[in-house]
Amino acid sequence: MSKKSTAMQDYILISRVAHVIERSGLAMAGAMCGTFVGAQLAKANVALFESVGFVASMILIGMVGFYVGIDVPRLPVHPATERESVDAVEVLSAAGTFLATVAALISVFSIVFDEAPQRLWEFVVGSWWLGGVAMQVAAGSIGRLRVGQRAVQRTTMDGGRAR
C-alpha cells in the first residue's frame, strides 16, 4: 500500500470521526434544549407534563431532532445558467432549528428568572418545540432519502457497478 493511499485513508477516518463528534455535540445540544423545555412545561402544573416519562421524551426528541435535522445533505450544484430554486429541505431544517431553539431560550429564561408565563404561552412554547424538532427530523430524513436515491440511480446507470 502506498503512502498516498494510507494518508487518504487516514484523512477519511479523521473526517468521519470528526463528523460523529460534531453530530454527538448537536445531539447533546438538543438534549439540553429538550431538558429546559420539559422542565418549563413541568412547572405548568399539568399532570401530563409533570411525569418523568414526558421530560425524558422531550430530551430524546431533542437529541434525535438536532442529530438528524441540522446537517442535511445538500442538493447537487447546478450550472449557473439554470435558475436556482429554494431547497425546501434546507428551509424546513432552518425553520425547525429556529423554532426549537427559540422555545428552549424562552424556557431557560422562564426557569432562570422564575417567571411563569401564562398557561397559553406554555403550550405555545411546547408546540414550537415539538413542531421545530419534527421539522428538523423531517428535513433530515428527506435529505438523506434523496442522497440514497441518487446513489441508487448512479449505480443503475453504471450498469450495476459501484462508483
**Approximately how much helix is present in the residues?**
over 70%
Determine Rg (CA atoms, Å). 21 Å
Give the overall shape, derived from the CA principal axes. Answer: elongated
Q: Enumerate the spans where pLDDT stays under 50 for 5 or more consecutive residues.
A: none
Got a strand count?
A: 0
Secondary structure class reads: mainly alpha
What's the mean pLDDT score?
82
Biggest sheet character: none
Order of SSEs: HHHH
The total of helices stands at 4
Distance between the termini: 21 Å
Which oligomeric form is depicted?
single chain
Number of domains: 1
- Percent of sequence in beta strands: under 5%
Topology:
Layout: H1 3-42, H2 52-69, H3 88-112, H4 119-157
Helix pairs in contact: 1-2, 1-3, 1-4, 2-4, 3-4
Structure commentary:
- There is one protein chain.
- The protein has 163 residues and is mostly helical.
- It has one domain (3-76, 85-157).
- It has four helices and no strands.
- The chain has helices at residues 3-42, 52-69, 88-112, 119-157.
- Helix 3 (88-112) packs antiparallel against helix 4.
